[in-house]
Amino acid sequence: MGADSVMTELVFRAEPPAPPALEVRVNFGVFAGRNATQAEIDDLARALHEEVDSFAILAEERHEFGGEVETAVRQIVIEIPTDRDGLEERVLQIADRWATACIHARSDLGELGSEL
């Protein structure tokens, strides 16, 4: 097995997936000052499962670079393949309650977390 075959298995080009019908982003890191824990993500999944059968939750830490600018964003992304009347509002409410509870329970930002 040569170096090329190892590289091929490790790194590969992926085709962009089809966009979800509903995508909700939670700016978790901005308000919590940290990434969401696995247990917190599991709690969000349980709450969402009461409203929708199929979804994906991505814990995203994104670094962007350009010129003199460097940014890091920590978000939770909820992707739902189908949408129906009222689902967006319910998912937004669930995500807001979840994020607020997580931030109040364990905030590294102190005062900023208490403003939610």
* Total number of helices: 5
What is the molecular shape? globular
Strand arrangement in the largest pleated sheet: 1-3-2
> Could you give the count of β-strands?
3
Gyration radius, in Å: 17 Å
Task: Spell out the helices and strands N to C.
Answer: HEHHEEHH
Task: Give the helix proportion (percent range).
Answer: 40-55%
Q: Can you tell me the number of structural domains?
A: 1
Average pLDDT level: 88
The biggest sheet amounts to: 3 strands, antiparallel
Uncertain segments of ≥5 residues (pLDDT<50)? none
What structural category do the secondary elements indicate? alpha+beta
Percentage of residues in strands:
15-25%
Characterise this structure.
The protein has about 120 residues and is an alpha+beta fold. It has one domain. The protein is built from 5 helices and 3 strands. The protein has a 3-stranded antiparallel beta sheet with strand order 1-3-2. Helix 3 (about 40-50) runs antiparallel to helix 4. It is globular, with a radius of gyration of 17 Å. It starts with a helix and ends with a helix.
Give the topology, please.
Elements: H1 3-10, E1 22-26, H2 28-32, H3 38-49, E2 56-66, E3 69-80, H4 87-105, H5 111-114
Antiparallel strand pairs: 1-3, 2-3
Write a short abstract of this structure.
The protein is of the alpha+beta class and 116 residues long. It has one domain (28-114). It has helices spanning 3-10, 28-32, 38-49, 87-105, 111-114; strands spanning 22-26, 56-66, 69-80.
Task: Give the key terms.
single chain; 116 residues; alpha+beta; three-stranded antiparallel β-sheet; 5 helices; 3 strands
